[in-house]
Design the sequence.
């Protein structure tokens, strides 16, 4: 029988490797679905239209992608927003691959990050304090 030629522990090794492969392949999908559902609930009652949400998400991404950060653009985009608005924008933003070293999107070496995480990495402590002046709900997000 073929089974006799394969040591017992190999089966567990293959099983473990298969399990890790499945996690690796579906991790991104799980994270995206989880983020979508979470922000769906948290954004109920947003006063923004879908077009406003899309534009703000794009503008925030443009302000953060590449080396450096356009802080003033971030302040401008988030002025007057509520926490529900922010979660709606965060849902539109989704998860983007962030390269923390260069502070930009990198689909090969980056790590899937939410809008909250992108902002947290891109802004220093003074800028975060200023953001909290403009949009106080950021204090609740741990900024
Ligand atoms: Ca950047």
Sequence:
């Amino acid at each position: 029988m073929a089974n006799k030629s394969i040591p017992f522990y190999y089966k567990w090794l293959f099983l473990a490797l298969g399990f890790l492969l499945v996690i690796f392949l579906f991790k991104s999908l799980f994270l995206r679905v989880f983020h979508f559902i979470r922000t769906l609930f948290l954004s109920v009652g947003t006063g923004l239209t879908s077009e406003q949400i899309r534009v703000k998400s794009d503008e925030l991404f443009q302000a953060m992608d590449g080396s450096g950060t356009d802080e003033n653009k971030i302040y401008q985009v988030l002025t007057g927003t509520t926490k529900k608005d922010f979660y709606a924008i965060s849902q539109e933003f989704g998860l983007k691959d962030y390269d923390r070293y260069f502070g930009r999107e990198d689909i090969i070496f980056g790590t899937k990050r939410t809008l909250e995480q992108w902002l947290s990495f891109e802004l220093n402590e003074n800028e975060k304090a200023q953001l909290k002046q403009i949009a106080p709900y950021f204090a609740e997000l741990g900024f």
